[in-house]
Amino acid sequence: MAVSRKPVFQNLPSPPLADRKPVSDTRHGIARTDDYAWMRAENWQAMFKDPSLLDPELRRHLEAENAYMEAAMADTAALQKTLFAEMKGRIKEDDSSVPMKDGAFAYGTAYVTGGEQPRYFRIPRDADHKDEASRKLLLDGDKEASGKDYFRLAGLDHTTDHRFGIWGYDDKGSEYFTLRIRDLESGEDLPDVIENTGGGGVWAPDGKSFFYTLQDENHRPSKVFHHIVGQPQSQDRLVYEEKDPGFFMGVGGSLLDDFIYIDVHDHETSEYRLLSTKDLMAEPVLVAERVEGIEYSMTEGGDVFYILTNDGGAKDFKIMEAPVEAPGKANWREVVAHEPGRLIISHMAFARHLVWLQRKDGLPQIVIRDRQSGEEHAISFAEEAYSLGLQGAAEYDTDVIRFSYSSMTTPSQLFDYNMSTRERVLLKTQEVPSGHNPDDYVTRRVMAPAHDGELVPVSLLYRKDTPLDGSAPCLLYGYGAYGITIPASFSTNALSLADRGFVYAIAHIRGGKDKGFAWYEDGKMKKKENTFKDFIAAADHLVEQKFTSYANIIAEGGSAGGMLMGSIANMAPEKFAGVIAAVPFVDVLNTMLDDTLPLTPPEWPEWGNPLESEEEYRWIAAYSPYDNVGARPYPPILALSGLTDPRVTYWEPTKWIAKLREKAPDAGPYLLKTNMAAGHGGKSGRFQRLEEIAFEYAFAIKVAGKT
C-alpha cells in the first residue's frame, strides 16, 4: 500500500545519531547483536535515587534528543498553550472531595486555586463539608512539594483513634517512598523517617506501630517490616520476606482492625498470610499455599472471610467464604457461583451486605447481596457505555456505600447508595467551569471484526457535527495487557480533540478483561500478537465505517500500551498517520532476559521467560518492537520517557528511537522527549500533567494537519 502523509515536519535540523557499540548475546543457540545496549546505565539503581549520577555521555545524548524534539515541535508552542488553557479551564481549581465518614470524623481532599498538589483535611462526622470553617487541614501537598522538581504524595492513613497519620512521598519519580508520621492535632511530624518503602503503611489498632513494605536494591517490595513509633528504622522487625523475585508483595488492613493482610502475587498466582492484631509479634499464618495459575483475594466479614478466587476452573471467578478461625482452603464454601462470561473484578463485605463489582457483556455492574436473606440486586444504569468506580465505605457497620459513574459524554457523578432501601443520593457532579453540554457530543460503541472472527469493542466520542465521511482525524488509544480494562469514562481532556473535529476512540483489545478473563488469556504469552492484530482491526473498521481514514489515524498507548505502539508501527506502518508512545515497553526481549530489573521476574507469567524457555524466547523475539525495527515507511513517532522510571527504564525508548533512525532514516521523523526529573507517571502536579497531555495532543493535531 502506498503511503501518502501530510508534510507537516519541514526544515528540521539533523537528528542526534547515537554511537553504535555492538554487544553480542547468544541464548538457546540464537545469536543477536545490540548496537545500543550501552545506553543502559550500569549504575541505574544508584541513579534512580540520585539522577545526578547519570553518565555524562548519556546525559548529553538525552539532552540532544530533547533539543531536537523541541525544534520539531516549536511551531506548536502557541497551540500547546491554547490546549493547556482549555484543559485547565475544564478543571474546578478549588475542587474538593466529598469526605468519607469514619468514626468521629470524615476525611477528604481538596485543592486550592493554582495548587498542584492535594490537601488532606477532616471535618466532624456530620459537619457540612462545604463549610470550609469546619475543615481541619492535616497535610498541605503544595507546602511539602515546595522547591522540589518532582513530588508525589502516597496518601494519608490515620490511626483508629484519629491521633496520628502515616503519609508518604516520592521526590525523584523513582517510586522509592519515604514515610513520615504526623500528629494530626498539632500538624507536626514525629522524628520517625522510614525510607525506601513501597508507599503507605497499615496501622495496628492501638496506633503505636504500623506495617510497611521495603523496596530492595532492585526496586522490588520483598520484605514486610513492623515499625514501632519512636524507634529508628534500623530496629524495625522483619515480619515476612518473600524470597522469590518473581512475586510482588503488599500489606493491607481490615475495616474491623482485626487482621493485617500480606498479599503475595504475580499476574496469575496469589497467596495470603494473615497476622491477627491480637498478637502483633506472632508469625503470619498462611491461608492457602500458592499454586501456579490460582488467584485469590480476601476481605473480612465478621466471623467469616469472603474469598474471591478462580480456583476449581472458575475462570471468571467466584466468591467463597471460610471461618475466621480456620480460613484454609479445605474450609472454603461457595457463596457466589462461577458464571462464564460474568467476570467478578473485586469484592467487599459489610455487616449486612456482600458487594462485588463485575463485568458482563462488556459493561461494569455493582451487585449487592443481603447476607442474611441471600437476596441480590444490581444497581442499574441507562447509557449504552459507561464507567463505574466502587469506593465502598470506611466503616464495616454501615448500609451505605459510595460509587462513581461517568460515560464519555457524562461528567463523573458521585453517589451514596443505601444497600437496604436502594436509595441513590447524588453527592456531586464533576464541574466543568468552562462549560460542557453533553448534547453536543455522541458516544458510541462499535464492534470491529478481528482476524480470527472475534469482535473487538471500540468506544467512540465525537461532536454531533463531525462529518463521518472519512475526513475526520482520529486518536485511537489502546493498552491490552495485564487484564486491565480501559473504561469508557469521561475525559475533559479528550474534549479538546473532539472540539477540533477528532473522533476519540478506545480499542478494548485482547490482553484486557473487557470481555471476561478469556479476553485477557487470549492476549498474553504465545497469543500476544492478538493484541496487536486487534488494534489494527479496530483501525481498519473505523476506516471502513468512514469514521476516519488511514491518513488521519494517530495511535496512542503508554507503558505496555507503548509496546503495542511499537508493534503496530512495525506491522502496519502505512495505516497510521502518527504514533504516540508514552514510556513505551519496547525492548521486551532484552528486558525479559535481565532478571535484575525491577519488574522482570514478576512479568514472566505475562510475557514468557526467555531465560529458561527457547519457545518463549522465540515468541517474544517475533514481536519485540525494538528487535523488529526495519526499513519500513514509519509514520512520525513521538516517544516519551522518564529518567527515573523503574517500570519502563529510560533506555528502552532511547534505544528504540536510535534504531528507528538507523534502520529507516528517511521515514518518521522520530522524536524523543525525556523528562529529566520524573518517572513512569510523568510530572506529578495536576497542571504539570496537563502540560504533558497538551504536548501529546499538539503532536496529534500537527500530524493530522489541523494546526
Automatic annotation (TrEMBL):
Its EC number is 3.4.21.83. GO terms for molecular function: serine-type endopeptidase activity. Residues 1-26 are annotated as: Disordered. Keywords: Hydrolase, Protease, Serine protease. Residues 489-706 form the Peptidase S9 prolyl oligopeptidase catalytic domain. Gene3D superfamilies: alpha/beta hydrolase, Prolyl oligopeptidase, N-terminal domain. Residues 15-429 form the Peptidase S9A N-terminal domain. One of its GO terms (biological process) is proteolysis. PROSITE patterns: PRO_ENDOPEP_SER. InterPro entries: AB_hydrolase_fold, Pept_S9_AS, Pept_S9A_N, Peptidase_S9_cat, Peptidase_S9A, Serine_Peptidase_S9A. Belongs to the peptidase S9A family. This is Protease II protein. It comes from Pseudorhizobium banfieldiae. The gene is ptrB.
